[in-house]
Design brief:
The chain is mainly alpha-helical. 76% of the residues lie in helices and 0% in strands. Residues 1-16 form the signal peptide.
């Protein structure tokens, strides 16, 4: 990841085709070391390619990956017979009771102050 980040920093800095030494200099400037094999592999894979096109292609690939969280949330109520709605309703009732209690305390205090 850090090698890729160094590559992207170099490209954003105006170097359209960074070398291995460029990446090593960026990494060493923040106290990190880059593995020569990984640097060479990255440079070989991106050689002659536009970084903007690579990022766009990566986004397309990630768009087809399921997010995971949504499917579980939808499947759980269907399997449980809608059990997910009941806890939410119970929670709302608890909040209403708490609010009513707070209001009644205010009324009690105002009555006490009125009697003084």
């Amino acid at each position: 990841m850090k090698v890729l980040a160094a590559y992207l920093l170099a490209v954003l800095g105006g170097n359209a085709s960074p070398s291995a030494d460029d990446l090593k200099n960026i990494l060493s400037s923040v106290g990190a070391e880059g593995d020569d094999d990984r640097i060479e592999l990255l440079l070989k894979q991106v050689k002659g390619k536009d970084i903007t096109e690579l990022i766009a292609a990566g986004r397309e690939k990630l768009a087809s990956v399921p997010a995971g969280g949504g499917a579980v949330a939808v499947a759980a109520p269907a399997a449980g017979g809608g059990g997910g709605a009941a806890p939410a309703a119970a929670e709302a009732k608890k909040e209403e009771k708490v609010e009513e209690k707070e209001e009644s305390d205010d009324v009690s205090l105002s009555v006490c102050y009125a009697n003084i």
